[in-house]
Every structure is written in C-alpha cells, then in structure tokens.
Amino acid sequence: MLKDSQVMAVLPAKDIDRAREFYRDKLGLEPSQTIEGDNLIYQCGNGTAFLLYQTDNAGTAKNTQMGWGVTDVEKEVEELRGRGVVFEDYDMPGLKTENGIATMEGMGQGAWFLDSEGNILNISSMPV
To answer: Domain range for residue 23?
Structure first.
C-alpha cells in the first residue's frame, strides 16, 4: 500500500509571505505550485516535496519537522551560513554539536536550524 507511495512533508507558516522569502533567500527554493493563494508546494530531489501552509500553529513543535539528506554536511552548513541561516547548538546526552554540526555514532553528521516560522529543519549525511 503506502510503502511504494511518495511522501510529502507538511510545514506550518504563520506568515506565508515571510516563509516564502526565507525559503527563497536562505535556502534557494522556489515553490513549484501555489494552491488557493497561500499553500505552497516545493519540489526537492528524487520526487520528494513539501507543502507550506498558513496557520497560527506554526513554530509550536519542539522536534525536527523535516530534513534533507546531503552528501557533505559541512559544505552545506557553510553555504547556508553564507546565505544567513543560523544553526542551532545542542549539548545533551547523545547529541552535542560543534560549530553547529553533530557527529552521531553510526549515523553520520547532522545540523539543525529554524526557518522563519520557528519550524526545526535538519540536514544530515544519513539517509532520510
């Protein structure tokens, strides 16, 4: 059933225009489709996509909401920082970042940042 179907992440945005600017200016992404004026679909690699929709509930989750699998986390962090993305620092059991990047035993590297709406996003060298 679902195991062979594509998955689409869904992210909330309090201010859809501010979010659109963040995703364009900081992450280099443009929506591939606009639905009903304030729902934006972004296409990413390998047929994946995410929907950004307007709601007052944005920024309330305290967990990673979406992540990209990349081949070189350090390179991506450097490039995104150059575009103004600020990476989170963590120091807790099982997860400690150095210069915004965590190296996790058997799982590669990962780095986390917030979008303009307070959603926690991730890039990692592990498959997502």
So the answer is: 2-124
